[in-house]
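SUBJECT: protein chain
CONTENTS: sequence, structure tokens:
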Amino acid sequence: MYATARIYSGQPNPSRNQDLNGFRFPATPWQLSHPRKEDIPELASIRKGTLGSLFALGQDAWNLLPWLELMKKDPGFKFPGQSGYYHSVRSDMLQREPAWAEFSRGVPITLKSPEAQEVRQKRADDPSTR
């Protein structure tokens, strides 16, 4: 089962999220790298609120600046940000790919990227790799 990113508040709460087991959803790598409440920085707007994704986006905006020229020249380059993976789709546009997670025991578990899953499936279907 798939859900939108709104299924996860970004606040770790295994007992409250227990009913969500098995749901897959897009998330930010920042959210997934803070699986326990103690891992979230001591900023009230992040720890007690749901602004972790906005915090991650701000970090990415700052950290992406030095890479923009390279991204224009090499459209295959992906920048691993805190809010997702960025790549250039045009000289004036970036596209963000979110991370994916699945609830297990009320905790979001990071899934492999869709590209990695696709490559694995192609290898499994290729008779020459058996």
The chain has a mean pLDDT of 82. The chain has one domain: 5-129.
